[in-house]
Amino acid sequence: MNLVVEGMTCGHCVRTVTQAIQALDPHAQVDVDLGSGVVKIEGLLAVEQAVEAIQRQGYVIAAVLPSEAGTPAAPAAASSCCGGCHS
Hints:
The chain is an alpha+beta fold. It is built from two helices and four strands.
């Protein structure tokens, strides 16, 4: 599945989203593209489970894309850090 996630800005965000998904499916493959905001997940999770896990971390799911849709043309993520890298 491909999810468009708003609010991801840095490596800390990538780790947070990845860990949220892998807490539910340890074998899930998670690929986060900060530039497009797309999180590609390959695993056994239902879309609803993945959306809920990411939202619990404070991120907004802007769209759920079909897996074959690939990466949408989206504005680049903000260049500022979420602050998690420096805590």
